[in-house]
Design a protein that fits this description.
By secondary structure, the protein is an alpha+beta fold. Helices cover 22% and strands 21% of the residues. It contains 5 helices and 13 strands. A 6-stranded mixed β-sheet has the order 4-5-8-7-9-12. It has a 5-stranded mixed β-sheet with strand order 1-2-13-6-3. Strands 10-11 form a two-stranded antiparallel ribbon. Helix 3 packs parallel to helix 5.
């Protein structure tokens, strides 16, 4: 139901598709509200996930993700019994508030979680290819520094399950944008196929370019498209899929 990393010594996780009540293409732990699943089932899935880590659904804060580079500061969670509505259009959230879980929804895109322990402060980032080529992970690091005085070299990061280069074929124009931005080695080319993009490595390089140490970045190895029993995948399932939640919260 939940994957974690030893890199982040605080409440966090990357949900799988196991352990929920949704059915059909959303089976079973779908946490996406706008994919066609029954709202009551999504609400129960959120309740189960929150209970697993000692939170309430009202503490799970999300944005309306738009595949851009905007970041929003979260000051507090909205009291209630259900997961609150999206707080605005953005692809990254950051906060110093405690007991607020910053959440990212994905079904192939890259979730990036950041922790600045000396401040302390956290950020959660959604990186599809558009956000990644705009270096939204690096911009979240910069935001934590600008707003709170966090030092990039001391930050801890985790990159969660996403589609990997084995399954992520892109057009030549997209591949060229990434290689121009992040350097060579991000694409694999096989005869008769388009380039396959390593979106995770692009996010890792984005973090390192602004001072996050490579030894402080953990990359979970899972490919969402390769593992239908464990993960939703928008590309594999041709758009008819549930959503995972990746989150972290200051205690």
């Amino acid at each position: 139901m939940l994957l974690t990393t030893g890199r982040l010594p605080l409440c966090h996780g990357f949900s799988t598709r196991e352990g929920g009540v949704s059915e059909g293409p959303f089976a079973s732990l779908n946490l996406g509200r706008s994919v066609g699943d029954e709202p009551a089932r999504v609400a129960e899935n959120a309740r189960r996930l929150a209970a697993r880590v000692g939170l309430t659904p009202s503490q799970l804060v999300c944005a309306n993700q738009v595949h851009g580079e905007r970041l929003l500061e979260v000051e507090t969670a909205t009291p209630g019994v259900d997961m609150p509505p999206a707080i605005g259009d953005a692809d990254g959230l950051f906060t110093r508030a405690r007991r607020v879980a910053l959440c990212i929804r994905t079904a192939d895109c890259v979730p990036v979680l950041l922790y600045a322990p000396e401040v302390p402060a956290i950020a959660a980032v959604h990186a599809g290819w558009r956000g990644a080529v705009l270096s939204i992970p690096g911009k979240a690091v910069a935001e934590l520094g600008n707003r709170y005085g966090a030092v990039p070299a001391r930050m801890l990061a985790a990159i969660g399950p996403s589609i990997r280069s084995c399954c992520y074929e892109v057009g030549e124009e997209v591949a060229a944008q990434f290689e121009a931005r992040f350097g060579p080695g991000l694409t694999v080319r096989c005869a008769g196929e388009g380039p396959r993009l390593d979106l995770v490595e692009a996010c890792r390089r984005s973090l390192m370019a602004v001072g996050v140490q490579g030894c402080n970045i953990d990359v979970l190895p899972h490919c969402t498209a390769c593992s239908p029993a464990l993960f939703f995948s928008h590309r594999r399932d041709q758009g008819r899929s549930g959503r995972h939640l990746s989150f972290l919260a200051l205690d």
